[in-house]
Design brief:
By secondary structure, this protein is an alpha/beta fold. It has helices at 5-19, 29-40, 49-72, 78-87, 91-115, 119-167, 175-184, 186-192, 255-273, 275-281, 307-320, 329-339, and strands at 198-205, 218-224, 229-235, 287-296, 324-327. The chain has twelve helices and five strands.
C-alpha cells in the first residue's frame, strides 16, 4: 500500500515529536497519537532484548536524574528530598515508579545475561509486547489523547497571553513581531473569526500572480471557515494610532487605520477579480461567497481615558463594520482570554 507524501511527512514529524513531546503545540494534535504510540512501543525487544533493555535503563535513569535536579536543585540533602516529596505534586509517584522501573530493568538484564532465553521465549515476549503496544494505542486514542490535547492547548493559551503581557511594551511598534506571533497562535485569530477556521495561507497573495507569488497585493492572513468561505486579515502594530488630530468637535480615524481599511478593501476586490486563478492554484479549495475583511491594529487602552475619543472611534468603526471589522490588539487578546475562561 502506497503512502501519500502528506501522510509520510506527518509520520516523520510525529516521530520527531516523540523525541520530546514537551514541544507539542495545538497544531500538532493529529500527530500526538502517533508520537505517543511510537514512544511507548518496544517491539524491538524481539530483535535484541538485551540492547533494548539497556537503552530503556539508560533513558529511565536519565529521566529520573533530570527530575531530581529539576525539583531538588543543588541541595540534595535528605531533609530537602523529604520536603519535596510532601509538597511537590506528582514527585513521590515519579520517584516510586522510576525506582521500580530501574530495578526491574536491571533484573531483566541479569536474567538475559544469566539464563540466555532461547528464540521461542524471545518470540513470545515480542508477540506479547506487540499486542500490548496495539492495545495501548487504542486506549491512547480513546481517552488519553483528548486529555493531552486539552493540556497542550491550555498551555499554549497561557503562553499566548503571557507573550501579550510581556512583549506589549517592548515590541509595541514591531509589526513583524506580531505577525509572526499571530501566525504561530492560530487559536487567537480563530476567536476573531468566531470559531474554528483553517489557516489557508500566511502572506496570501490576492493579485495577478499565483497564491504564493511575488509582486502582487497580499493580505497578512487568509482563513477559510467550514463553508470554505474566505476571510482576509490585515494587521498593523499595537502602537498604531487609532485616531488623528482633532477636527472641530471630533476625531477622524488615523491615516494608518484609514489606510488599513483601504488595503483590506482593495485586497478583497483583487481577490474577487482573480478568484478562479487563485482557486485553481490553491492546494486547499476555497470560495468567495461573502469574503470578510478584518483589520487588527492599535490598543484601545490608548484612548480609554477620553470619552470623546472612544465615542469617535466606536462610531466610525461601526460605520465601516459591514465592509471591514476593526479590532484592537487588547480587544483581540481579551476576547481570546474570555473565551478560554482565563484571567486577562
Amino acid at each position: 500500500m502506497e503512502i501519500s507524501d502528506e501522510r509520510l511527512q506527518e509520520i516523520i514529524e510525529s516521530l520527531e515529536l516523540a523525541r520530546d513531546m514537551r514541544k507539542a503545540r495545538p497544531a500538532d494534535a493529529d500527530k500526538i497519537a502517533i508520537a505517543l504510540s511510537h514512544k511507548l512501543s518496544h517491539d524491538d525487544f524481539g530483535c535484541d532484548p538485551k540492547a533494548c533493555a539497556e537503552f530503556l535503563l539508560e533513558k529511565v535513569t536519565l529521566a529520573r536524574n533530570e527530575r531530581l535536579s529539576e525539583v531538588l536543585g543543588t541541595e540534595r540533602s535528605r531533609q530537602n528530598f523529604i520536603n519535596k516529596i510532601e509538597t511537590t505534586p506528582g514527585f513521590k509517584f515519579f520517584i516510586d515508579i522510576s525506582t521500580r522501573a530501574i530495578k526491574e530493568l536491571e533484573f531483566l538484564l541479569e536474567y538475559i545475561e544469566d539464563d540466555k532465553p532461547d528464540e521461542f521465549a524471545v518470540e513470545f515476549a515480542s508477540f506479547t509486547l506487540s499486542a500490548i503496544d496495539l492495545a495501548n494505542a487504542v486506549l491512547i486514542n480513546g481517552d488519553v489523547l483528548p486529555l493531552i490535547q486539552r493540556g497542550v492547548y491550555a498551555s499554549d493559551i497561557a503562553s499566548a497571553l503571557e507573550t501579550w503581557r510581556s512583549k506589549r511594551a517592548i515590541e509595541g511598534a514591531n509589526e513583524s513581531f506580531w505577525h509572526a506571533e499571530l501566525a504561530s497562535r492560530r487559536g487567537v485569530l480563530e476567536r476573531l473569526l468566531g470559531g474554528h477556521a483553517l489557516l489557508l495561507q500566511d502572506e496570501f497573495h490576492v493579485g495577478t500572480t499565483n497564491s504564493s507569488g511575488k509582486g502582487s497585493k497580499r493580505a497578512d492572513f487568509a482563513f477559510i471557515n467550514k463553508a470554505n468561505n474566505i476571510s482576509l486579515i490585515e494587521i498593523k502594530s499595537p502602537d498604531t494610532k487609532l485616531l488623528g488630530a482633532r477636527y472641530r468637535d471630533t476625531f477622524p480615524l488615523s491615516k494608518d487605520i484609514s489606510g488599513g481599511i483601504s488595503q483590506a478593501l482593495i485586497q478583497r476586490s483583487e481577490l474577487m477579480m482573480n478568484f478562479y486563478q487563485k482557486r485553481a492554484d490553491s492546494e486547499v479549495p476555497f470560495e468567495v461567497f461573502a469574503p470578510r475583511c478584518y483589520l487588527i491594529a492599535g490598543d484601545l487602552s490608548s484612548i480609554a481615558s477620553d470619552k470623546s475619543k472612544l465615542r469617535a472611534f466606536e462610531v466610525q468603526r461601526q460605520a465601516v463594520s459591514s465592509h471591514v471589522t476593526i479590532m484592537t490588539f487588547d480587544e483581540l487578546y481579551a476576547q481570546f482570554s474570555s473565551f478560554n475562561q482565563l484571567d486577562f
